[in-house]
C-alpha cells in the first residue's frame, strides 16, 4: 500500500495532466454539442476549458522537465569527454536553477497578487489559473536542484576514481 501511494504521489503531476486533458476535451465536446445541436452554448464552457488547459500545460511541462524530455540540442555535448560533459551539465543546471528560480518567484508573486481577482463569467477566483503556474515552477526548481546535485556528485566522482588508480 505504501509503495502504491509513493508511486501515485511521484506521478501526481502526470495524473493531473491526464485528468485535465480529459476534462478539457469533454467540456469542449459538450460545449460544441450544446452550441450546434441544442442551440444553447455553455456560458462557462470556455472558462473551464481554458483553466483545464492551463493545468494540463503546466503540470505536463513539469512532467517533461522531471523526465528530461524537453527539446534539447546535445549533439556537441555528447562529443565531450565524460568529465567535461559532467562539468558542463553542472553549469547548465546552475543556469536553469537561476532561470526557474526567478520564474518561481515571479509566478508566486503573480499568484499572490491575483488571489482576489474573479473570473469574468463564473465569478470564481483566478487562483485556479495561477496556482498551476506557480506550483509547476516551484516543483521544477526542486527537480533542477536535485539534478544539479546529481551532476555535481557525478563530476566529483571522476576525481575519486582517478585517485584510486
- Helicity, as a percent range: over 70%
Unreliable segments of 5+ consecutive residues:
none
- Assembly type of the chains comes to single chain
- Classification by helices and strands: mainly alpha
SS element count, helices: 6
How far is it from the N-terminal to the C-terminal residue, by CA? 45 Å
Give the amount of beta strand, in percent: under 5%
The total count of strands amounts to 0
Rg result: 21 Å
Order of helices and strands: HHHHHH
Characterize the biggest β-sheet.
none
What would the average pLDDT be, to the nearest integer?
A: 88
Indicate the overall shape: elongated
Could you characterize what this model shows?
With 165 residues, this protein is mainly alpha-helical. 79% of the residues lie in helices and 0% in strands. It is built from 6 helices and no strands. The chain has helices at residues 2-10, 12-36, 45-67, 75-78, 82-113, 127-164. Helix 2 packs antiparallel against helix 3 and helix 3 packs parallel to helix 6. The longest helix has 38 residues, at 127-164. The radius of gyration is 21 Å and the shape is elongated. The termini are far apart.
